[in-house]
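Exercise 7. Given the encoded structure of a 730-residue chain, write a plausible sequence.
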């Protein structure tokens, strides 16, 4: 016996090593991609850290309200003696000092308008005083120097009888010329004053005007608030209700809108950036978010969400200047950092200052200031991704300006006060919607055509048809998407009724053609060449399809009485979007059919010929043999083909991107578009700042795609193995 040559043995071993190394490299590459995606997603679940950086005593009494610069080097505080002092946090050195009113000043008489650096003080002699604080940073000899100035205070007489003003709110323009003031007196009367100043561009003359309006509140006022736009006044009441006035151009308030009664009085109010979320702190420690909503002349205050209560009465609320977060301080010194959109308590703890009475967010939102009788403390805040939570990503969220909670994806806007909407649910829905519509076309055509090509088609034709169908799989997705978006979508809008008729007419026509062909072949016998039936059926399909398309004008004119989109809207109330799920189903189904066909055809062809011959020998017809012997035996391969097609459709990007409106909506209508996970990644990733919440959320979408594909392939393999064991005995 001749021995195998060493050269061939070495070649066999080398080939085995190369194949093994290639397989391991593929596995390692996939795991590497998975680890990279997980590494980018992991920071989304990182914890918020709040640390104390500096603590120092500051001159004066207990601070009633505080402000700080963007570097948290200075603290501006107004205390009970009516002085505004700006001091260095490090040393306590006074930088600026101004006496606003003669003390003592009660805590409820001082407020800080949201979105501004100013103190508003209500006095006992009927006035409201507004003191702005201007911070500036400069560099000298490579060293940063932060300074502060106190411009002249603005003073408005609220009560001509000089009765005490118990609560006050104000908003002042950046140049200090325009001012809106709201003041409440002890008799629950609310006075609104608007002072404006316009400068003549030619002469430089400043023209001032003033208007005044009054209203009555039903209960004692515990807090007042003006929005940045100077158009809305909110009042917290002792009976737990919230009052809302609109401020007219002449300074008069609109009719009062009241929220429902609450068992706990309102203790503090603030508005989050954008003035669309009203945060309410109560005496029992409860913290709520309300949405002031306007629909034309109609207004409503709607309770959107509640946060876990603090231990004591809420004494101060400080909104973040760069997001929907806010700090809360209670009467017992407990603090909490919360985020409205995600409904998360990011951090909770105790104030580092004993008897803390005031808090303020830093302008960069990377820190805060806490002050009280024990001095002031600078806090560093590291909250990397506060917008993210399971509810925000997959649940219903009540967003600002919306009528009700819902799923929404809108990652960016043109304003800084935008509330990111990062729900992945519409993207998952769109992914499955596009996949299902494409498989509705691809699975029947792919599997049945594979069965016909394998079991019925003449071998000479099969040698042509199979390579042509498999070459279709190499068509670039971008070309199919381009054709679907620019050619198929407008065409389908015009001929969709004819297409519906075609779906109803073609099956009976094929059955009738089959019966006709069977009778012809029986009569003519061997004179009909084998394989020519395909040309007959193609001709029948062409005639039926052409006839249906020719009926299109008649259908729209006689049956519908209008174009199909118009009829759909008028009769069914359904809007027709030109780039919709049907277009995607046709285009993506065309891309998936070759894959299903190739794998299913191999599964049919690999059925042992002995099974087919045995069935035919026992008297079964060709059709009975295919459906009862070949189909069950090939079912594992057919199922694998469908699952591979499913994976191809789930991951498709360019066809979905170009053939749909790419709108992240959750609508089951086939006439609406959608946005898939893969298309969303392609659209959003170029504009996502590296390391930001949007960036990492897009990687989370990629991880979902990875997991979805892995799960589908795993289930498919388990089912395939089970089917294989079941039919292996045939």
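Solution.
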């Amino acid at each position: 016996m001749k021995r195998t040559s060493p050269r061939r043995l070495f070649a066999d071993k080398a080939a085995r090593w190369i194949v093994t190394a290639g397989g391991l490299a593929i596995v390692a590459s996939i795991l590497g991609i998975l680890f990279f995606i997980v590494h980018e997603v992991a920071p989304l679940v990182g914890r918020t850290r709040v640390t104390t950086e500096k603590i120092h005593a500051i001159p004066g009494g207990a601070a009633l309200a505080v402000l700080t610069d963007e570097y948290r080097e200075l603290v501006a505080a107004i205390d009970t003696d009516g002085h505004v002092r700006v001091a260095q946090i490090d040393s306590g050195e006074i930088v600026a000092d101004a006496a606003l009113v003669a003390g003592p000043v009660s805590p409820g008489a001082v407020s800080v308008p949201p979105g501004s650096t100013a103190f508003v003080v209500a006095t006992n002699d009927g006035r409201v005083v507004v003191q702005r604080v201007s911070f500036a940073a400069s560099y000298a000899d490579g060293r940063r120097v932060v300074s502060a100035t106190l411009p002249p205070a603005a003073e408005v007489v609220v009560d001509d009888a000089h009765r005490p003003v118990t609560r006050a709110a104000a908003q002042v323009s950046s140049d200090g010329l325009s001012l809106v003031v709201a003041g409440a007196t002890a008799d629950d009367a609310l006075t609104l004053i608007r002072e404006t100043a316009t400068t003549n561009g030619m002469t430089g003359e400043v023209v001032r005007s003033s208007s005044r309006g009054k209203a009555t509140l039903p209960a004692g006022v515990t807090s007042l608030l003006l929005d940045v736009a100077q158009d809305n006044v909110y009042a917290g009441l002792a009976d737990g209700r919230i009052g809302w006035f609109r401020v007219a151009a002449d300074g008069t308030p609109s009719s009062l809108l009241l929220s429902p009664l609450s068992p706990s009085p309102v203790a503090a109010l603030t508005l989050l950036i954008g003035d669309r979320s009203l945060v309410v702190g109560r005496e029992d420690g409860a913290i709520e978010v309300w949405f002031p909503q306007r629909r034309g002349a109609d207004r409503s205050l709607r309770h959107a969400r509640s946060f876990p209560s603090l231990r004591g009465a809420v004494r101060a609320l400080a909104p973040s200047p760069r997001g929907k977060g806010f700090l809360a301080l209670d009467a017992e010194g407990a603090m909490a950092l919360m985020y409205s959109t995600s409904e998360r308590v990011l951090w909770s703890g105790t104030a580092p200052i004993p008897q803390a009475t005031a808090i303020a967010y830093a302008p960069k939102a990377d820190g805060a200031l806490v002050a009280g009788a024990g001095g002031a403390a600078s806090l560093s805040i590291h909250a990397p991704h506060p917008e993210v939570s399971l509810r925000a990503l997959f649940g219903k969220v009540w967003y600002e300006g919306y009528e009700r909670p819902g799923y929404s994806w809108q990652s960016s806007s043109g304003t800084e006060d935008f509330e990111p909407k990062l729900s992945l649910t519409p993207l998952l829905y769109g992914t499955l919607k596009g996949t299902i519509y494409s498989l509705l076309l691809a699975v029947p055509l792919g599997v049945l055509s594979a069965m016909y090509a394998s079991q019925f088609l003449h071998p000479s034709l099969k040698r042509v048809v199979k390579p042509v169908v498999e070459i279709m799989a190499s068509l670039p997705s971008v070309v199919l998407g381009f054709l679907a978006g620019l050619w198929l979508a407008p065409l389908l809008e015009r001929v969709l009724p004819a297409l519906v008729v075609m779906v109803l007419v073609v099956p009976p026509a094929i059955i009738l053609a089959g019966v006709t062909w069977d009778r012809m072949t029986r009569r003519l016998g061997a004179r009909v060449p084998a394989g020519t039936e395909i040309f007959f059926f193609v001709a029948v399909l062409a005639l039926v399809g052409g006839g249906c398309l020719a009926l299109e004008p008649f259908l729209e004119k006689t049956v519908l009485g209008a174009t199909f989109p118009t009829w759909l809207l008028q009769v069914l109330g359904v809007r027709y979007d030109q780039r919709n799920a049907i277009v995607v189903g046709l285009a993506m189904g065309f891309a998936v059919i070759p894959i299903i066909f190739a794998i299913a055809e191999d599964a049919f062809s690999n059925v042992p010929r002995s099974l087919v011959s045995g069935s035919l020998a026992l008297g079964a017809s060709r059709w009975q043999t295919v459906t009862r012997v070949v189909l069950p035996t090939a079912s594992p391969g057919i199922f694998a083909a469908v699952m591979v097609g499913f994976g191809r459709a789930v991951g498709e990007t360019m066809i979905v991107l170009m053939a749909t409106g790419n709108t992240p909506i959750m609508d089951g209508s086939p006439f609406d578009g959608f946005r898939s996970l893969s298309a969303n990644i392609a659209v959003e990733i170029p504009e996502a700042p590296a390391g930001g919440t949007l960036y990492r959320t897009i990687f989370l979408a990629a991880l979902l795609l990875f997991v979805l594909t892995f799960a589908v392939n795993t289930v498919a393999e388990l089912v395939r193995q089970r089917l294989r064991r079941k039919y292996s005995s045939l």
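Remark. The chain has two domains: 49-394, 425-490+577-727. Students should compare their own answers with the one above.
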